Structure formats: structure tokens, C-alpha cells
Please model this.
Amino acid sequence: MLFNKRKAKKPPVIDGRLRHIAFIMDGNGRWATERGMPREYGHSHGAETFRKIGRYCASIGLQCMTVYAFSTENWKRPKREVDTIMGLLSHYIDECVRGMEQEQIHLRFIGNLEVFSPELREKMEKIDRATAHKPFLLNVAINYGGREELVHACNRLIAEGKTSVTEEDICHAIYTAGCPDPDLIVRTGGDLRTSNFLLWQSAYAEYYFTDVLWPDFSPKDVDQAISAFYARKRRYGGV
Ligand code: FPP
Model:
């Protein structure tokens, strides 16, 4: 053979063991700082990566993906940075409205959405309704905190008149109701913590941590996380 041409790797074969991947998209700020740029620059590249990874996950046979876009704690950041992230989200919704026919994505926003303006909430609800028939569910967690979600769920159940609750009740009252629990949670950016993300839903999730900063994260990195997932043995407390 004249050329030792490297074959393009095939996308991983996904089976029923892996239905839902969640991502903690960390490292945008550091990625920008490394380039001598303001943190907002990292977020706008992070939003590009989010689009790319969303489309990739929708194309390989997964049912669902969740991203941690903005936590209940992220309001502590400088106003300019918060405004940039909100602007990127709003822009992404507009893009989804325009490209809705081509995409196979059901876009849903999870978190305490009450804090957002009526216009933004209306936009979020509208795109959720308009894409609800699509096969791949993409949850974008904004103003999301795992503890807040559980408190919210308990208060909802109390308001419904419950005086004691079951696990099933909580599963129906959390923001991700109707969506399978994440099988795999990927955190980019090198930190080894869960940061209040999907506390209830992650009970049996496998975690995958990588040093890759989110704007550099690629479909190849998704494949690597998936391979690592399939190499593990999930026992759910059994033997
Ligand atoms: C964490 O990186 C990232 C965030 C808090 C925001 C994530 C937002 C986006 C990817 C853009 C908007 C999203 C969508 C869905 C269009 P960091 O800022 O904490 O990075 P650092 O740890 O390097 O400081």
C-alpha cells in the first residue's frame, strides 16, 4: 500500500444501555483567557460547540441530551457575562425557530424559569411546543440547581395535597419528568465535581471527566466518553 491512510472512525453503536448523556459544559472562561480574550468570547465559542455536539448526539441514536447552560449560582457572575450567556440562549432559540423543519430536535428548557422575562419565557415555551414531536430531546438547563429542583418538586407535591411522597411522585414532579435518567454525565474543563447538576437523576449515572475545555470539545471526544461508558459494568447496587 502506497499510503498508510488512517480510516475515519465510525460513530459508536448506541444501544438501549445509553439513552441519555448530560454535559457540564465547563471551561469557556479559561479557554478565552488562554487566548487573551474576555470570558464572553469563550461563551460564544462554547455556544458553537453546543450546537455541534447537540447535532452529533441527535445523529448517533441517543434519545436525549441535557446541558448545564446556567446554574442558580451563575447569577453571581459579572452582569456583562450573564447578559452574554442569556443573549446566546435567546439567539439559539431564534435559530431553532428558523431551522426547525430540518432539525430532529425537541428543545426544552429546564430549571426555575419564573425569573425570566415573560417574553423570553413565551419564546421558550413556544419552541418547546413547536418541536415536541421531534425524536431527540435536548434539555437546556438554565437557572437550574439540583437542590432547587428538589425543593420545587416537594412544594409542587404539597400544593397537590400530598402528605407523603414516593420516589415515583418525585420523578413526576422534577423538571426532567418524562425523560430517562442520564446514563452518562460528562464534565469538561478538568474539575472533578458535580456542581448541583441533576442530583436526583444522577443516582446511577456513570461520570466521565475530561481536561478538554468545552469550546475544544468535539464529536471525537463524545465518542471517547461513550467508549469509556461501554467499558464499564453498571451493577445498580447488585453484583
Ligand atoms: C462554564 O464555563 C460555562 C457556563 C457557565 C455557561 C455555558 C454557556 C454556554 C456554552 C453558551 C450558551 C449556551 C447555549 C445553550 C446556547 P466557565 O465560564 O465556568 O469556564 P471556566 O471554568 O473556565 O471559568
